[in-house]
Write a structure and sequence with these properties.
5-stranded mixed beta sheet
Length: about 210
Amino acid sequence: MTPTRRTRPATPATSRLALAELATGPTAEEAAVGLRTGVPAGVAVTRIDGGTATVVTPTAFAAADAPLLRLRRAQVVWTLTQFPTVRRVVFTGADAVVLTRADLADLLPPIVVTEPTVGRRVSSPVTVAGTADVYEATVTVRILDAAGRILGTGFTTADCGTGCRGDYRSTVGYRLTEDGVGAVEVYQVSPRDGVPEHVVRIPVRLAAA
């Protein structure tokens, strides 16, 4: 699962809008790097109370094999729990279930990048943040130009080590004479041979620096 960002007019029905955007799916730029949604239209929040969001789903939502259904639920849970009023999600129906992020954490890749998101315009120094479960909690970050040349690099550690997921945040500077496209790469350096592992590549727009 990869976070994305949308800017929309303010509305009191924020959760409903977020689910509608999730069902709409990725932009062309996001789709080009492999992002997609597994959630069909028609998923809706009927109530939020005491940190619990109650969700109804269309028939098509549950008409999937178990792995896909779990991924669909995970996308809904992560989308709704980004809001401070929601800590858990109740899926109603014959197969009713209550889920939190912790229940679905095994679906996350070793490294998740929450900032920046695909296509965002960034400037030096770039703030890079997310979560990771990697060897000795060490995360490496590099900024690349359109040709793949390294413009800047740095590393940081997550606040939890091997075998648990922790938060990380780092700022990495770069030098570039003109605005252009590029990428932020976040990865683990293999303890065996020093090769980058679990590489997450986020295409971005780089401001001259």
